[in-house]
């Protein structure tokens, strides 16, 4: 390795937070992943999807100890009338900060990155309808709530954050983009610790229709999410949110934090096109750039968490890109977390990063429960039950419309 690479700080993960259709926290998610539990609930809405279970808003804050009463009161003030995505983002942030030992700590040095853009679409559409009927009753906080940075502002006030804070948008690649940007900040020394948030995509009827017309959404009454299966028929929408605390190894060790895993490599590249069609070369390049950033050969990757949206063109392209990068020898074992959680869009990359960390920690690969006829029998997919596995290095893909490609490598942590 070059001296420049040696001089770079190692980046470690110290906190996780999750809300998804199959889990209300990271502990529950680890169990659900091992079981291969699928959160698809066709009857829970007017269109099938992986919906969050009914839950009292801000339940986590209300359950805090009396010593955290000021935080509970701030949550009631800041979040009661906030959009759903902001409320859920606050809960996953709380879980991640608690695990990382950063709750109640001085947060002048903590950076906040929220992944995604056009997050609050259902909130906006509902407010618009009410406005047309009764213009005088517009929520006075609407102006600060409907913008994406409203999540940044709410979390800043809630957790008393004073470091850098902003949003990054890359549609379905947004979660990985947050990790990419966090890595740049940490490596540059701009901050020693960063909280990355993948917010829930609060989409409504307009977005459903747009995705359906594009031919990528499976919202039929009998919709099923089957990444890499011959019966795949488009992605199924998922509700979910995730948080991850990333910091330099030195900073984590100095404060005695428990290190869960290491972020070894990140990449981001464009295809030079604006359409929805995936690029095999662009996806392969993202994986190669990430391997180069981590200074790893393809054979070092034990496990690949695929983008795996269940769209025919997307699945075919990703399989071709995997062959392009890994050849025919020493290919990694593959699963697709969207089979269990649906496509959670802005949060997808971070949800899948959390799933990778949990699988590294607990020594298994979650099943692909609906993969019955693989479109690529030459690739090694996990079967219908979890596989016990010691994972050293895992690669996680996130690709997006408009040719935005990103991959990250998460590794077992060794001192």
Commentary on this structure:
By secondary structure, this protein is α/β, with parallel strands linked by helices. The chain has a ten-stranded mixed sheet with strand order 3-2-4-5-1-6-12-11-7-8, with helices on both faces. It has a two-stranded antiparallel ribbon with strand order 9-10. It starts with a helix and ends with a strand. The chain has two domains: 10-261, 3-Layer(aba) Sandwich (Peroxisomal Thiolase, Chain A, domain 1); 264-411, Peroxisomal Thiolase, Chain A, domain 1. It has helices at 3-7, 26-35, 59-62, 69-79, 84-100, 121-133, 142-145, 149-159, 174-188, 205-214, 249-254, 280-294, 312-326, 338-341, 348-362; strands spanning 11-20, 110-115, 165-168, 193-198, 240-248, 261-270, 303-305, 333-335, 364-365, 387-388, 393-400, 404-411. Helix content is 37%, strand content 17%. The model is unreliable at 1-5 (pLDDT under 50).
List the helices and strands and how they pair.
Blueprint: H1 3-7, E1 11-20, H2 26-35, H3 59-62, H4 69-79, H5 84-100, E2 110-115, H6 121-133, H7 142-145, H8 149-159, E3 165-168, H9 174-188, E4 193-198, H10 205-214, E5 240-248, H11 249-254, E6 261-270, H12 280-294, E7 303-305, H13 312-326, E8 333-335, H14 338-341, H15 348-362, E9 364-365, E10 387-388, E11 393-400, E12 404-411
Q: Bin the strand percentage.
A: 15-25%
What is the level-2 CATH architecture name of the largest domain?
A: 3-Layer(aba) Sandwich
Unreliable residue stretches? 1-5
What Rg do the Cα atoms give?
20 Å
Helix percent band = 25-40%
SSE-based structural type: alpha/beta
Question: What is the arithmetic mean of pLDDT?
Answer: 94
Tally of separate domains: 2
- In sequence order, what are the helices and strands, one letter per element? HEHHHHEHHHEHEHEHEHEHEHHEEEE
Output the strand order for the largest sheet: 3-2-4-5-1-6-12-11-7-8
Give the CA-based shape.
Answer: globular
Q: Which CATH top level class of the largest domain fits?
A: Alpha Beta
CATH-level-4 superfamily name of the largest domain = Thiolase/Chalcone synthase
Distance between the termini: 18 Å
The count of strands amounts to 12
Number of helices: 15
CATH topology annotation of the largest domain: Peroxisomal Thiolase, Chain A, domain 1
């Amino acid at each position: 390795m070059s001296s420049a690479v040696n001089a770079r700080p190692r980046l470690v993960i110290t906190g996780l937070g999750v809300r998804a259709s199959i889990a209300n926290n990271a502990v529950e998610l680890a169990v659900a992943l091992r079981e291969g539990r699928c959160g698809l609930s066709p009857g829970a809405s007017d269109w099938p999807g992986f919906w969050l279970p009914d839950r009292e808003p801000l339940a986590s804050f209300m359950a805090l100890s009396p010593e955290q009463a000021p935080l509970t009161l701030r949550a009631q003030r800041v979040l009661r009338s906030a959009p759903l995505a902001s409320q859920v983002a606050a809960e996953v942030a709380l879980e991640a900060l608690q695990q990382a030992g950063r709750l109640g700590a001085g947060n002048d040095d903590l950076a906040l990155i929220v992944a995604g853009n056009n997050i609050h679409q259902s909130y906006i559409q509902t407010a618009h309808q009410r406005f047309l009927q009764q213009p005088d009753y517009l929520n006075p906080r609407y102006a600060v709530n409907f913008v994406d940075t409203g999540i940044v502002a709410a979390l800043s006030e809630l957790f008393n954050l004073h470091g850098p804070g902003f949003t990054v948008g890359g549609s379905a690649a947004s979660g990985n983009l947050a990790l990419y940007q966090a890595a740049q900040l940490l490596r540059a020394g701009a901050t020693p610790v960063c909280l990355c948030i993948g917010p829930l995509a609060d989409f409504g009827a307009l977005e459903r229709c747009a995705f359906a017309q594009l031919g990528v959404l499976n919202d039929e009454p009998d919709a099923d999410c089957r990444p890499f299966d011959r019966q795949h028929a488009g992605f199924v929408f998922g509700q979910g949110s995730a948080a991850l605390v990333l910091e330099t190894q030195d900073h984590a060790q100095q404060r005695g934090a428990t290190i869960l895993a290491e972020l070894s490599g990140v990449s981001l590249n464009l295809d030079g096109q604006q359409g929805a069609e995936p690029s095999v070369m662009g996806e392969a390049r993202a994986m190669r750039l990430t391997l180069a950033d981590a200074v790893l050969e393809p054979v070092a990757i034990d496990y690949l968490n695929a983008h795996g949206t269940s769209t025919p063109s997307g699945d075919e392209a990703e399989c071709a890109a995997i062959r392009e990068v890994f050849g025919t020898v020493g290919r990694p074992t593959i699963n697709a977390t969207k089979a269990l959680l649906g496509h959670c869009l802005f949060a997808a990359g971070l949800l899948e990063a959390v799933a990778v960390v949990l699988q590294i920690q607990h020594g298994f690969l979650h099943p692909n429960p609906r993969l019955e006829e693989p479109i690529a029998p030459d690739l090694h997919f996990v079967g219908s039950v979890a596989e016990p596995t010691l994972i050293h290095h895992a690669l996680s893909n996130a690709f997006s419309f408009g040719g935005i490609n990103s991959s990250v490598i998460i590794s077992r942590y060794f001192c």
